[in-house]
Amino acid sequence: MNINPINRINTTNINMKNNPQEDNKPVLCSDENKLVKELDKMSMINNVNIGKKDYELNLSKEELEKRTHKDYLTTKKMLDTDASEYLALSDGDKEALKHLVKAASVLDKVNMELDNPNNLPFKEYLEKEIEKGNENARLTKILFDAQKGVCSLDRESNMIELAKGVSERPGKGVYPQDLEKEEFHNILIKMLKEGKVDDVAKILNQRTVVERVGNELVATDYVDKFKDEFSYMASELEKASEVSTNEDFNEFLKLQAKALRTADPMLDAYADKKWATLQDTPLEFTITRENYSDELTETVVENPELKKLLDENGIVPVAKDFLGGRVGIVNKKGTDAILGVKNYLPLMAQNMPFKDDYIQNISPDKESKQTMVDVDLVAITGDVGEFRAGITLAENLPNDDKLSIKELDGGRRNVYHRQIRLITSEDAKEKMRKRLDATLNPELHKYYNDEADHWFTVGHENGHSLGPKSGTEGLGKYKSIIEENKADMISLAMLDVLTEAGMYTPEQRNQIIVTYAADNMMTSKPTLSQAHRVRSVMQNYYFIKEGALEISKDGVLNVNIDKMVPTARKMLEEIIQVQMKGDFSKGEKYVLDNFVWTPEMEKMAENIKKVSKTLNGKVESPLADKLLNE
């Protein structure tokens, strides 16, 4: 997956200790404070703050007015009601699109529950307060709807907490709110020693919600947990399959509907395998399943005793999936352009470092099981629609942990998001010009090209299909950071090979290099939980160290174009070695050795912030809103 925040810059969070509302907060004596803390901790079990009758808004009116102003809250607009792409559809596909939008809309509610148990109650609270005329609640609701949750990092890596006393937990909403890492590990060790292997395997599975039952943990499959919601989605998909004009697409919808009704991961595998073959369809529908958000599951590899028990029992821990929905209309012209890369995938596989030492999804000597579509978006919901400073540019799915890849030898599919990447307004173009003036050597401006970022993303998404396709689970919380880093370096490292083969012109090669370097600069040092942003810092530090990039004392970037591809190749070789070893300590050392935020990066960040105020973003979906009401 690649993220476009506002030029591939991702997430942020804010410390509200100076919030004027804090001045009115009563001071508690130590005993009272201790009691309230204990009550709050106990209440986390059911995700209800029993110390308060209602939620209390966290941001001041001044902060809310700033963050909801158009200068700070950017907008990505999906297809409009009169979009030519929609009007050109057959009547059957128009009718199908309505049912697909209704199915996808359910995932907003489902993923909010997976994200934070306070999301839905807080949303209800805001709606009631808005009815009473509470202006702060109205402004808070704008941010809540944009980030699809009560807690979110913004572009500057500050955590925005919309309700006082409500924070984000490592286990999000998929684990009990009061569960700490040490207790989590101890419970699993005890259960394994008691022979409850299947129960532990289910707890550490990517498709379960975990709750307390007595002194143990019990996992429930998503299909059983969200039975009513998934049944409704299945019905809508079945209705769409009755009127859509493409038989392959209809077959996929029926398989996906079946998987939503029965808690059997193999049913999802059959649906995934079919989905990955879709190439010539008018419509696009996806239930996205990505596991970047769960920060608790993969900590189990950090505990030597627990890891030994897991290995002995053949349990591979996989972070929980968070669910999103994507509905769109396939853009044939854009798809044809993207498909050009498919002919080069075997060549890329042949040029991967240490290619004979592992199995990868793309074979150097066979036709690639990889489909690709460029999509005009109608709706993005749930996880894929969260605009938390950054938003998804494209996705390569299913991921390697899914059974369609592991058991059925299925392929993968890239879906590119046109409405996210396109910069069409003059205002947006002017902001980009100002950013380049403030941050990039003027001699390199001629190489900056918005479309080159898309070309880079195409390389990134296909990069996920290259390199080791298994054995990286031992990297734990660093697995995603290293994987995203790998995909970026493949996109850069293959440029000379692909230019020589005729995919890119020499000018396009240079445009990709300079555009990547300029867009990779950020406004703040991220947290380690932000895989997409951490990898950017790692790359910037590595390339500066190797002399491929230089940031002046004034915070202006210079790119040594000749050194960029060899440096990317060198970093890629190191990444592949880390992935092949699959050792947590080695992965941790590699990340921390390169995750260095330098004074020059800080100066660059200051320059960017002077010309770009954006902190968050929101999505508008006029066509989807219309279809939902039909």
Layout of SSEs?
Elements: E1 2-4, H1 30-43, H2 61-67, E2 73-77, H3 84-87, H4 91-115, H5 119-131, H6 135-147, E3 151-153, E4 159-161, H7 181-193, H8 197-203, E5 208-213, E6 216-221, H9 222-225, H10 227-243, H11 247-261, H12 265-275, E7 283-290, H13 304-312, E8 322-330, H14 332-339, H15 345-350, E9 370-382, E10 391-397, H16 403-406, E11 412-417, H17 418-421, H18 426-439, H19 450-463, H20 479-493, H21 495-501, H22 506-519, H23 531-545, E12 549-551, E13 557-559, H24 561-581, H25 584-594, H26 599-611, E14 616-620, H27 622-628
Parallel strand pairs: 2-14, 9-11
Antiparallel strand pairs: 1-10, 3-4, 5-6, 7-8, 8-9, 10-11, 12-13
Helix content: 40-55%
H/I helix tally: 27
Low-confidence stretches: 5-53
Task: Supply the helix-strand structural class.
Answer: alpha+beta
Overall average pLDDT: 90
How do the strands line up in the largest sheet?
A: 1-10-11-9-8-7
Largest sheet: 6 strands, mixed
Principal-axes geometry comes out as: globular
How far apart lie the N and C ends? 33 Å
Rg, alpha carbons: 24 Å
Strand content: 5-15%
The count of β-strands is: 14
